[in-house]
Amino acid sequence: MDVEGAPDLDVQGNIVDHEYRIEQDGRRVAEVSKRWFRVAETYGVEVAPGEDPALIIAVTAVLDMSR
Question: 3-class secondary structure for the chain?
């Protein structure tokens, strides 16, 4: 994903099943997973310390809407 004024974000994993990582310059900035929850259609987003949570949640929402 293109990020204006910062390095692009790379998404690696299974977007459809909500099991993926978001990386920037080869380092993990967030992880999205359903394995933390037992409720159907529920998933969590873990944002690395120092990262912009609003940006990560926005990216996750866009990916969720595009599936």
Answer: CCCCCCCCEEEEEECCCCEEEEEECCEEEEEEECCCCCCCCCCEEEECCCCCHHHHHHHHHHHHHCC
d(CA 67, CA 11): 14
> Could you read off the pLDDT of 15-44 as tens digits, one per residue?
988 999 999 999 999 999 998 887 777 899
Quote the CA–CA distance of 43 and 67 in Å, as a whole number: 15
Across the chain, which distance is largest between two alpha carbons, in Å?
38
Rounded to 10 degrees, the C-alpha dihedral 64/44/42/18 comes to 50
**Cα 9 from Cα 46, distance rounded (Å):** 15
Chain mean position to CA 66: 13
